[in-house]
## 1
Amino acid sequence: MKRSRLIQPLAICSLGVVIFGLFVLVYQDYVEAKSASWQQVTFRVMDSMLPFQERYREEHERYAVGTFDRAQNDLSLAKLIDWHPSVTDSNRYVADVIGTNAFKVTATSRDGPSLCRLYPAKQPCFDLREYLPSGL
């Protein structure tokens, strides 16, 4: 009789631990999928800037520098190259010139994460500071 009283709470606790563990796994998958989806959409928006930048370069012999941020009403990049993202998001897009033949676009979400790509190669930016010790 005493054993059955002890087994029931243990079984209930074990079941609770299993359910909690499954919930944690499902939530982690959800967070990872949400992040991957944001990255894919953001890269697509960033890539859509390339033809506008190329046209600007043909006309002015350089790439345009500017910002596109709907939240702050900073549309300097849109005014320069006539680029308007087809996706309405809350990202801040900043275009900077790298040398004479390339430019980089950095997209920063309101939540904090950011993505950076070099164009026209469409390659990720390389930041040496990520690999150096923090004291340097």
## 2
Amino acid sequence: MALIVTAYFYFTTPAPIYDSSIAEDRPSHSNESIDAIQPEANQANFPPRKQQIAWTEITLDNSLPTSKWAHVPEHARFVNLNDRFNQWLLRTPIEIHIPHINKTYNAVVDQITPNGLESTTIRASPATGEQDLNRFILTFGEEQTLAYVSTNQGSWELTGDGRIGWLVSSTDLRRSQDYSKSDVLNESYDRYAEAEYVPRRND
């Protein structure tokens, strides 16, 4: 029975993506299990990473498909998304620009986790010397991208596809949503309250 329980948890527990520079050092014939990488303990072993920009602002909104983005909050700003999220590695430095306040934050990837639903979640912490960023969380798949940026100046949320997204402050997003409408189960509640990239409602 103990062997069955151990095997169940071994094969069903998703593990963070491993860094290529670490994985390549392991013999292909090794039978040992690969433990999840702890960035804090191994960051000295990682080679320098190329700086990545999470997104860039779109200044000409007339190029956007209006039918697809018809219900975007009033204060949202459109951005072009980085098309290589799947190539980001642990310790990759990131620039996160918030066009609403014309400020750029610097972060470093510290966790990459596959979700098992053809999507991946990337978490990043403040880079050395960055004092205004708290946390950056990005979940991406082939057809949807979601992000949450927590800063000392406020929090910001992004919704998009694989190419274009819109960014809005959490305050404006809550103000623009109508929670009185029933969802598909005919129950009126905040269906996003448990999502990690959206702050929990206080009311």
## 3
Amino acid sequence: MSDASDRAKAAADEFMSGLKKGSDRLWVVGAGLCIVFVAFKSCSEVEPGQVAVRVNNATGQVETLTRPGLILDLPFGIHDVFVIDTSSQTFHMHGQAYVDELNVPELTVRASDGSNFVFNDTTILYRAIPERGADVIRDAGHAHGFRMWMLPYARAILRDEFGRESTISVSNPAHFGEATNRAKARLNELLNPHGVEVTSIVTPRPRFNDEYEGLVESRNETEKQLDVISSELQRAETERARRLAEVDRDQNKIIQEKRAALEAALATAVTEQTQTRRQSDSYKIEKVAVGQAALSGAQRTAAERKGQLDAQYLTRKAEIDAFRNQPVERVMERLGERLDGVTIEIQPWSSDATPTRLQYQNVGGGGQ
């Protein structure tokens, strides 16, 4: 009997020990599940194209988180996290009826000259500014509440800015773009404080009544013709400039060739002139040298001849002087030697004792 009770008691103790160990395991599993649940509830995911605004209700701090991924979101009212879509939103003004906050009726504008025109489909691209997420939540609430700011501002500002233009200026693409830029600047000035930004405004060509559309079409055709004429004029100017350039090039080539030929001819002439001058200088030097030599020779010859003549003169003079001083007999003797072989015929013409004519003839080899 005591053995059975001991066994029963041991079995009971073993059962209670196993039950205690099982309960400890359940507590561990339950605690882990609670931790996982609290961790899951304490995180929020921010996807690309979104921004999160986290409000700490304990301290009042507001944070704008722009990086995609998981962010801490403490439960039990400690944190409130609001996710905002910052991707590009499209606001359409088209059709005749209001569809939703992104699709409203088409835009009708009254121009400055009193006429009306319509934009069939005006598109405005806008978005929530990621860095201004706290302003978006403060002024428009969570989710897509910021879309409400577009409807009251877009139509009024577009009508105001395009209404400054006349029907003529608004049909001009240049003025049309200026009005669009003014409208975009005014919209951003009003929407930026609310954390909203307009990135683009796309408007089609305005539609007028049929008569004015015809006039616009005629003006567009005229402008196209004017553009064609301007293009033709530019092409003609370009062709003229090209031809003038070709003429200038050809004339410059001819001028260069002529200049080169003239420079070559000038160089040849200068060379020939130099050679001619060199030859003339050589000829002059040669002739001057020959003349100087001839002059020197002639002067020497003349001096020699003068000396000879002076000697002959002195000799003859001495002979004459000597003959003059000789007696008459010697003179007659010499005269006889000279008149040897000479016949003298004397024929008197009158009874005068003094003859007036004397003729003689040299018969021999003596001089006369």
